[in-house]
Design a protein that fits this description.
Belongs to the universal ribosomal protein uS17 family. The protein is mostly beta strands and 108 residues long. A five-stranded mixed beta barrel has the order 1-2-3-5-4. It has one domain: Beta Barrel (OB fold (Dihydrolipoamide Acetyltransferase, E2P)), CATH 2.40.50.
């Protein structure tokens, strides 16, 4: 099997030990109407450290079969909304200035 890397979103995790479901989407052109359609495929992915969370953007790579249906392994986590929410959002809101007065307009 040739080396294959796919980018997808974690849609299910925490139900199976060391396993997460990653949905990979691609655009195809309909043969008759020539419109673009989004097609998606779900892959069971081996996550050895159980560090994936919902809605993480990840890169997965194919590998020898880990189990009957699991033949992709986690390579990298590109973006994790859970870490963004816990690290930056609450502090950014706290540092926002509280000045609510309207700006002064210059006479024209």
């Amino acid at each position: 099997m040739p080396l294959l890397a796919l980018k997808g979103v974690v849609t299910k995790c925490g139900f199976m030990n060391k396993t997460a479901t990653v949905t990979v989407s691609k655009w195809v052109v309909h043969p008759r109407s020539k419109k673009r359609i989004e097609r998606s495929t779900k892959y069971l992915t081996h996550d050895p450290e159980n560090k994936l969370k919902m809605n993480d953007l990840v890169i997965i790579r194919n590998c020898p079969h880990v189990s009957a249906r699991k033949y992709f392994v986690l390579e990298t986590i590109l973006h994790s909304p859970e870490s963004v929410r816990s690290n930056g959002t609450s502090s950014a809101i706290a540092e926002r200035p509280t000045n609510t007065s309207p700006p002064l307009l210059a006479d024209a």
